[in-house]
Amino acid sequence: TAGQERFRSVTRSYYRGAVGCIIVFDPTSRESFEHVNDWLRDVRRLSCTEVSLMLVANKADRQVEWCVPSEEAARFARDHGLGYIETSASNGSGVDECFEQVARAVLARIEEG
């Protein structure tokens, strides 16, 4: 998975100059959530100072299997200045909204100068 160390060097090149970033984790996996801090640290170190960030809990269609509660993920996002949304790649719920929120945040920062 992308959370594995072998992918980190590849993905780091995508952060350079980024103005928006979406960090997706699998809430059915505690380990996936624990990697969010690593990704966040890399993004903040390598992207633009004012990068717009969104934390995404995928698999909203499988909430009964979640071992990372919505409240915990939302609190983490709030504490770290991230947006937060729950999506499902399987049925598409929340996916468009996620991208639209990040795009609006990026546009707002551009318009602010």
UniProtKB/TrEMBL annotation:
> Which residues constitute the signal peptide according to the record?
none
- Output the Pfam families linked to this UniProt entry: Ras (PF00071)
Which GO molecular function annotation, any one, does this entry have?
GTPase activity
Q: What CDD domains does the annotation carry?
A: Rab
Family, per entry: Belongs to the small GTPase superfamily. Rab family.
NCBIfam families assigned: small_GTP (TIGR00231)
Q: What is this protein called?
A: Uncharacterized protein
Organism of derivation: Strombidinopsis acuminata
